[in-house]
Amino acid sequence: MSGSDPNGIIERTRAQTLSLPVELSVEKIQDFQAAFSIMDIQSKGFVGPDDINQVAQAADMVLVENEAQLLLGSADEDHSGGIDMREFISIMTTPINQQDLEEELRATFRVFDKDGNGTINANELKRFVRLWDSELTEDEADDMIGQADPNKTGSITYDAFVQFLLHT
């Protein structure tokens, strides 16, 4: 067999086995799977505190003791010590309070705004993006950063950062 799936049977089956509370397109599930695999550094099928700590370290973030576990705690429905794909998609499809989102985005921006001047160094953001997604090529990273810094100033404002993260 050529490996093709003309009727989408494989993808529909994958979607069905996740038994999600919401209806998602195959494309959306694939997007979530790609995002999950970036965090599932060791391809274990779940994201645990060690994975969160590695991602934080790549972002030059320092998490206090047990902070990674706390971040995962509310999403870890089966209390396995990590989140699997179904739990991850559940998190990603849970409606977010706009005020909470704004606070999280500002906190994330401050992590990268090391000198507190209201901008992020484009090269630092690019370095993080490449660490986060090790399969990302230099050109792909340049394209991503180019979207956040279209004038090539080398600095990314908060508004440009939000547009970069939310792809708006």
Report the CATH C-level class of the largest domain: Mainly Alpha
**Rg from Cα:** 18 Å
The CATH architecture of the largest domain can be given as Orthogonal Bundle
Oligomer: single chain
Query: Outline, from the CA principal axes?
Result: globular
Chain-averaged pLDDT: 76
Briefly note the CATH topology name of the largest domain: Recoverin, domain 1
Kindly name the structural category.
Answer: mainly alpha
Distance between the termini: 41 Å
Strand % is 5-15%
Largest sheet: 2 strands, antiparallel
The total domain count is: 2
In terms of per-residue confidence, which ranges show pLDDT below 50 for 5 or more consecutive residues? 1-16
Order of helices and strands, N to C?
HHEHHEHHEHHEH
**Using DSSP, what is the number of strands?**
4
By CATH, the superfamily of the largest domain comes out as EF-hand
Alpha plus pi helix count: 9
Spatial strand arrangement across the major sheet: 1-2
GO molecular function: calcium ion binding
InterPro entries: CALM/Myosin/TropC-like (IPR050230), EF-hand-dom_pair (IPR011992), EF_Hand_1_Ca_BS (IPR018247), EF_hand_dom (IPR002048)
Protein name: EF-hand domain-containing protein
Domain EF-hand: 100-135, 136-168
Textual characterization of the structure:
The model is unreliable at 1-16 (pLDDT under 50). Helix 2 crosses helix 5, helix 3 (49-58) crosses helix 4 (67-73) and helix 8 (138-148) packs across helix 9 (158-166). It contains 9 helices and 4 strands, in the order H-H-E-H-H-E-H-H-E-H-H-E-H. By secondary structure, it is mostly helical. It folds into 2 domains: 26-93, Orthogonal Bundle (Recoverin, domain 1); 98-167, EF-hand (Recoverin, domain 1), CATH 1.10.238. The radius of gyration is 18 Å and the shape is globular. This is EF-hand domain-containing protein. Residues 100-135, 136-168 form the EF-hand domain. It holds the Pfam family EF-hand_7.
